[in-house]
């Protein structure tokens, strides 16, 4: 099975200059744990709920601090042909929850730990395992 089989539409911010409060509201409304930060079609970074929690803990002004101040700029990406096993290994070894799916610099979607857990949950009922 490949990433293309389970990826979802990626949620994005309009601009790296968007304030953190806007990003948090967008995440809440879209029920997602991350937003891709784009400049047109170019992926600039990713901001996650963890980034927002750190900003709150530091006392950052959520209305004045731009997403660009807390986003991760070096984003690991995968292609649609990446195996789910490889995607899961990347996430586990790097402690990340979201992987943008990119081809030729264009973002096609996102795969998350939640997506991977859904696949595992659909594999079947293992009644032999103890509760």
Give a quick precis of the structure.
This protein has 131 residues and is α+β, with helices and mostly antiparallel strands. The protein has helices at residues 20-30, 49-58, 84-94, 113-122; strands at 12-13, 34-39, 42-48, 98-103, 106-112.
Q: What keyword list fits this structure?
A:
131 residues, alpha+beta, CBS-domain, three-stranded mixed β-sheet, two-stranded antiparallel sheet, 5 strands, globular
Note down, in words, how this protein is organized:
The protein has helices at residues 20-30, 49-58, 84-94, 113-122; strands spanning 12-13, 34-39, 42-48, 98-103, 106-112. The mean pLDDT is 88. It has four helices and five strands; from the N terminus they run E-H-E-E-H-H-E-E-H. It is globular, with a radius of gyration of 16 Å. A three-stranded mixed beta sheet has the order 1-2-3. A two-stranded antiparallel ribbon has the order 4-5. By secondary structure, the chain is α+β, with helices and mostly antiparallel strands.
Task: Summarize the topology.
Blueprint: E1 12-13, H1 20-30, E2 34-39, E3 42-48, H2 49-58, H3 84-94, E4 98-103, E5 106-112, H4 113-122
Helix content: 25-40%
The whole-angstrom Rg is: 16 Å
CATH 2nd-level architecture: Roll
Which structural category fits the helices and strands? alpha+beta
Mean pLDDT: 88
Q: CATH H level: which superfamily?
A: CBS-domain
| Spatial order of strands in the largest sheet | 1-2-3
How would the global form be characterised? globular
CATH class: Alpha Beta
Q: What profile does the largest beta sheet have?
A: 3 strands, mixed
């Amino acid at each position: 099975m490949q990433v293309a089989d389970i990826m979802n539409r990626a949620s994005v911010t309009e601009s790296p200059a968007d304030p953190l409060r806007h990003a948090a509201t967008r995440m809440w409304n879209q029920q997602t744990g991350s937003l891709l930060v784009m400049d047109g079609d170019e992926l600039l970074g990713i901001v996650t709920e963890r980034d927002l929690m750190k900003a709150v803990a530091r006392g950052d002004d959520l209305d004045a601090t731009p997403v660009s101040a807390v986003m991760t700029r070096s984003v690991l990406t995968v292609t649609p042909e990446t195996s789910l096993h490889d995607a899961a290994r990347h996430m586990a070894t790097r402690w990340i929850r979201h992987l943008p799916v990119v081809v030729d610099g264009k973002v096609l979607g996102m795969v998350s730990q939640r997506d991977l857990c859904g696949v595992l949950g659909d594999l079947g009922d293992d009644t032999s395992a103890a509760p």
